[in-house]
Amino acid sequence: MRPSFTLEQIRTFLAVASREHVTHAARVLRLSQPAVTQQIQLLERALGVRLLERVGRNVRLTNAGVEVAGACLLVMRALENLEGVVQAVRGLHLGTVSVAASPLAANYFLPPIITAFTKAYPKINVVVAVVSAEDVCQQVAAGQVECGMIDGPPTPGGNLVRTRVGSTEMVLVAHPDNGGGPGENPPCGSRLLVWDVGSASGTIIARLLGDAVDRAPRLQIGSVEAARLLVLSAPGFVTAMPSVAVRDDLGSGALSRLCSRSVTLPIFALRRQGPDSPAVEALWAALSTPEPNGRALRHTPG
User: Fold this and answer.
1) Which of 22-25's residues contact partners 24+ apart within 8 Å by CB, and which partners?
2) pLDDT tens-digit profile of 242-255?
3) Which of 53, 150, 290, 295 could form a disulfide with 102 if both were Cys (CB 3.0 to 4.6 A apart)?
4) pLDDT tens per residue across span 259-272
5) Residue 297 has what pLDDT?
6) HSE toward the beta carbon, residue 144, CA cutoff 13 A
7) Separation in Å, CA 113 to CA 60, 110, 217, 290
8) Helix spans in the chain (H)
9) Angle between helices 7-19 and 63-90 (to 10 degrees)
10) Which has more confidence, 135 or 293?
């Protein structure tokens, strides 16, 4: 059977051992002398060895007491280290947080937020997963990540808290040699480029093109940036892109805008209900109250 003793008994024993005097230790510990003596006796009984022997008015360690005192010092140092770790976590000096983001949010909204967060909390590890908007909702609901950022409305259910944190205008674009122009639908033969399958891009293209969407073949690709590079590379593709992603391309003439209509795409931050660790709460505060930034999406609280 393992010895049964308390931290209070260890502290009392070390105080007596370091001073070799029960009365002096009692004064420092703010205990009565009988209380100190009782703690030592309980520790000796639990360990089954004699730790101290009296020498006149003083006491000194027995051979067993020397060994036990060394072990007790290691225990107290380990506890001090443990307390330091706990304080570090509470003070946002240690730990890991994770966030999943849809490709659009990861490319054009999340970077300035994560940059500011890592500057504010340089010792917190941050893991970012880029997955479809639907997978973001599932991962947050399942507890695989603490927070999420998506374009378009979140998947219902899953006990999620959602906050709209921004928006971007979605516009139809094509290579300048593709034909068509502002206010015009894409010419026949254009292939619709749909990025991040399961996101809002396909729905937005349908809203912008109306009946014409059913007559055009599609190409599905995994990310908004891949779609941008593909439509830049050659004529023949049409896609809906966030205005912040193609602002420079439209300004330089590398891309042409088709159709004068646009659709506003909301951006949402997600988390599970209930309180979490200080690090997660700090991450949520950063995600749910982003600051406007030149490359971030337009901030629209509410």
Assistant:
1) 22/59
2) 888 899 999 999 99
3) 150
4) 777 888 889 999 99
5) 37
6) 13
7) 61, 5, 37, 6
8) 7-19, 22-29, 33-47, 63-90, 103-108, 110-120, 133-142, 201-209, 224-233, 243-252, 278-288
9) 120
10) 135
